[in-house]
Amino acid sequence: MNYSNSSDLFYNGTANKIANVLQAVNYETSLVYQVVFVLSGLVGLSLNMCFILVFMATSSLRTVMNQFLVSLALADSLNSVIAMIFLPFPTEEKAAWLCGLKGFTSCSTMVAQVMSILVVTVDRFISIVFPFNYTTWVTQRWVNFTISAAWLYTVIVGSFGGIQCLQAWYPGGKCVITEIVAAWYNTVYIIHYVGLFIIMAFAYGKIGSIILHHRRQIAAAVAPEQAASEDLKIQLKVTKDVFVVVCTSMFCLGLIPIHLMLYHVTNLPLPKMRLVRNFFMLSNCIFDPIIYFLRFKDFQSAFKSIVGRIVNPHQN
Predict the structure, then answer these.
(1) How many Å apart are CA 142 and CA 136, to the nearest integer?
(2) Contact 83, 38 (CB under 8 A)
(3) Are 300 and 293 within 8 A, CB to CB?
(4) Which residues are within 8 A (CB) of 304 and not within 5 positions of it... i.e. 6 or more apart?
(5) What span, in angstroms and rounded, lies between the C-alpha atoms of 26 and 4?
(6) Which residues lie closer than 8 Å to 229 by C-beta, 6 or more apart?
(7) 183-220 vs 140-168: helix axis angle to the nearest 10?
(8) What is the rounded distance in angstroms from the CA atom of residue 281 to the CA atom of residue 255?
(9) Which of 132, 189, 190, 303 is spaced 20 to 30 Å from 253 by Cα?
(10) What does each of the 316 residues of the chain score in pLDDT, given as a tens digit?
């Protein structure tokens, strides 16, 4: 089928752009690509589910901050599953509903990651900038509402993405083409990412200034305990660790909006960049749980305790 002629049915693009997407499809249907992405998806899913299970099995880990991190781990887990199933996923004729399903899952999981990072950032901002109001404002009811609202929002956005891909699909086309050239899908993700980047820059910029002020207080104080309360010190430590997590996620996910914007404003061949983008997207799902284990001492202790009970169930 001539995709260059058919592209006018759903996108006001050029034949060169459609040819670039077809080249990306050729890469993504190779055996090496499929094996690498399936294995990466399995590793990402296993690591994130490990974090979630340790959280569920250890009551001391069920803090407000960790609940938000579990939401992020769940988003990473779903993204790993979707990557294993739908990358690559060239739909055949009469498979419009599968293309719509791919559009829904792809859009919703990406937005879920963005929203999970957002709620983590807001939580850290309140804990540092408004420390005396934190326990009053961020109640368990608020946590439940925030996480539920974030996931409901992702489902709504994903539904529109699925509808967009469903309407753009045509008999004989490949869903990977339809998804890439769906302007609504691309625009929504770019807006979400850029918006989150601005919010993070403001929030962590403010937090950074408070950390700097806190260090100056410690340097000027006769005794360290005069500089700040123990609760603030703990919150600052947690915030630094969380900052590493969210920055890693933003870096890995950043290639997605860059690729989407370049794709729409240039006629450059971008199939290899798409592969790199997908690789970093899956790498993000692997990096996050590794960072949890390396930087969160409570999680390390809980994980070792659970492994110890599994290896030696009779040990007290």
Answers:
(1) 10
(2) no
(3) yes
(4) none
(5) 16
(6) none
(7) 150
(8) 8
(9) 303
(10) 333 333 333 344 444 554 555 555 555 556 777 777 788 888 888 999 998 999 888 888 888 888 988 998 998 888 888 776 665 555 554 567 777 887 788 788 888 888 988 998 899 889 888 888 888 899 999 999 999 999 999 999 888 878 877 777 777 666 665 555 566 677 777 888 888 889 988 988 888 888 777 767 666 654 555 445 566 666 777 777 777 878 888 887 777 777 777 766 765 556 677 777 777 877 888 888 888 888 788 888 888 888 888 877 765 5
Give residue for tokens 């284990």.
293
Query: Cα–Cα distance between 37 and 106 in angstroms, integer?
Result: 15
Residue type, 277: R
Tokens representing 56 are 């569920």
What tokens were used for 28? 């993504």
Closest CA to 247 of 292, 211, 197: 197
